[in-house]
Amino acid sequence: MCDLWRNTLVTKTPPGAVPHQIQHAIERLRVDAPESSRSGSVDRPRWIKLYNSGCFFDPSSIPPDDYESIGRLVSGFDRVIVENHPRFDQGRLQKFARHIDGQLEIAVGLETVQPRWLSRMKKRMTRDTFDDYAMRLRSNDVDLRVFLIWGVPGISHQEASKWTVMSALHASRMGARHISIVPARRGNGWGEFKQAIPDANPMVLAGLQQQLIRRIGHHTVVTVDLWDMDSDQPGDEREALEQIGELNQRQDRSMNQKT
Q1: Is the pTM of this model over 0.85?
Q2: Beta partners for 222?
Q3: Contact 130/175 with Cβ under 8 angstroms?
Q4: Contact residues for 28 (Cβ-Cβ < 8 A; gap 6+)
Q5: N or C: which terminal CB in the chain sees fewer CB atoms within 10 Å?
Q6: CATH architecture of 102-258
């Protein structure tokens, strides 16, 4: 339901390719950082996201033999965030965790708890699958991040927000540390559905984010992914986008303080 499919490979990832990319990115990070940051006198990057347009623990995407090399490369970070589907695990999570010294966080696309939609999205999981995985992560001292989708074909703004709230409450109950709300966009995986996707109105999304922060923000961070949402909009919509951006940053700062 997003753009990550545009960057996937049609063959298995060659051994060593991913560590090479991570090393290149970290070197660029150091080159681009201010001198004071490189010397450690101001805030340095403490977290690293290893999003790979797929499932981190899919051995076709990330060869398990590369886990040790990846672990060495990210040894200076306090938190390592990867994304994964519950069906790709089978002990590989524990194997990778042994090679990192920071806190491991797994991002999972729950999408929605709206009945039948996980099947219609071909997610190859159920809400029970997600719940079992969330509990398994908790038992292994691994943090949970959750992606939720706002809006599916054929529903109103009101209904889209209602199901996002219900999905967020469920994710929070299952221990989600961070919930990222992703507005559905046309052209990404929706081709077989004839009904229209509700427009992601910035004012609706801003109100939704504030509501969720009030309800679960004391222990779960809630951000809205704006993707490439156009900021050149009428006054009220532009102000709503700016409000979302500010809340996202505030929530991120809050999360950073919790490490």
Answers
A1: yes
A2: 179
A3: no
A4: none
A5: C
A6: 2-Layer Sandwich (3.30)
